[in-house]
């Protein structure tokens, strides 16, 4: 009979550590590529990096020395001067959608006459449904007490 020998503990630790490092490196590479892509394609991102991390933007420009177009375009455009602050944009959207919802609420609010009519119709419907329930319960009680089974009435 073959006996199964367990692996030494250090081999298992090395294998799990290698898996973790490979996955962590892949995630770090994807995040780095995403950041580079945004720097390469978005003037707004370059402006944000210029304001918060100027050394990173300077490294990016030095790496792109063969193509000075991004730096020149950023300088000519003012590096994002045409973009609005995110808080101002959010306040504008909040105000606009709030006003729109208020207008819709006012437009769809029924008049007092319409509300009274709806209440009257509901009262009639409620009384009709109560009478139908009472009739059903009465018929059911009669059927349970009698020997004749329930039969569908023909019109």
Automatic annotation (TrEMBL):
What UniProt keywords apply to this chain's record, in alphabetical order? Membrane, Transmembrane, Transmembrane helix
- Membrane-spanning parts: 20-39, 86-105
User: Is Membrane there in the keyword field?
Assistant: yes
Q: Which GO terms describe its cellular component?
A: mitochondrion
Origin superkingdom: Eukaryota
From the UniProt record, give one GO term of the biological process aspect.
mitochondrial respiratory chain complex III assembly
**Protein name stated in the entry:** Ubiquinol-cytochrome-c reductase complex assembly factor 3
Source organism of the structure: Culex quinquefasciatus (Southern house mosquito)
Q: Give the lineage.
A: Eukaryota, Metazoa, Ecdysozoa, Arthropoda, Hexapoda
